[in-house]
Write a structure and sequence with these properties.
alpha+beta; four-stranded mixed sheet; GPX_CS; Glutaredoxin; 6 strands
Length: 161
Amino acid sequence: MTTNILHIPCNTIDGREIRLADLEGKAFLIVNTASKCGFTPQYKGLEQLWKTYGERGLRVVGFPCNQFGGQEPGNAEEISEFCELNFGVSFPLFSKVDVNGDDAHPLFVELKQQAPGVLGSKKIKWNFTKFLVDASGEKVTRYAPTTSPDDLTADIEKLLS
């Protein structure tokens, strides 16, 4: 039996426990992020999606992760400040998490179960892996780190219509 992704407890970057369902979205774009990654400029595209579709119900949420090349070494305050100053990030950021291994956050355990990677892999291979989830928390689509946020607009539009 699968767990509804939207009801898994998560800690915001300032330490408050919430569930994604509390954000009352029509679609959720969940991304494992990092500040010192070759894909870090995708923050700009993610912020643009948030600004473009937020009022229509898209919730973009970032989960910093330091599991790939130590590319997110900062603490919560440093991560938040970096994202805001360098990319104008205003979408919700969450506490740093592991996405693989024994200490993987339950949200990412469930995301990987519902939307495995290439050849059925249950691992996340790098930062900026993206998961688009519908309002029910049931339908999950996975996108590679190399997929630009701009390339998600057609799928986002479908979920918001």
